Amino acid sequence: MMIKLNTxxxxxxxxxxxxxxxxxxxxxxxxxxxxLIVQKxxxxxxxxxxxxxxxxxxxxxxxxxxTYVGDFTNDGxxxxxIWFDYTFGGNSIAxxxxxxxxxxxxxxxxxxxxxxxxxxxxxxxxxGIVHAEKxxxxxxxxxxxxxxxxxxxxxxxDNKIYVYTEKK
Length: 168
Ligand SMILES: [Ca+2]
Prior knowledge:
Blueprint: H1 2-31, H2 36-56, E1 61-70, E2 79-87, E3 93-104, E4 107-114, E5 119-126, E6 129-136, E7 148-157, E8 160-165
Antiparallel strand pairs: 1-2, 2-3, 3-4, 5-6, 6-7, 7-8
This protein binds calcium ion (CA).
């Protein structure tokens, strides 16, 4: 019985160590230097951002910006999507959009934009499909907390983005 208990403790210790190591690996991954295509896409985005905001009207400013890497053209090469939302102040989001950057050789070129009339977030880009979530207010939802979340798929084709409700 004593041996069994020791073995259990040892096992628990090993599992804990493995978990900690896995955590460290993740930490290293997130802090690794940005890939060249991400750097290029972010640079292009930063340059174009003032024009985007200006087109929204006076006082529009960037709230959040996130970069996603994955193959949305389905040619086996990672592309880049930059997601962002903007506001006119206060705590209300005026719009959520994203820009699609296709990787061509060592460069990226902007090939499409997605500007729906609802908020959304991006989860993953895999095998030519961008998995995202459409976010909407239900009647009675507080301003902070829209409660209708619908998984959607964004498909890129010939400079256009097509939206499908994700199959269950
Ligand atoms: Ca690609």
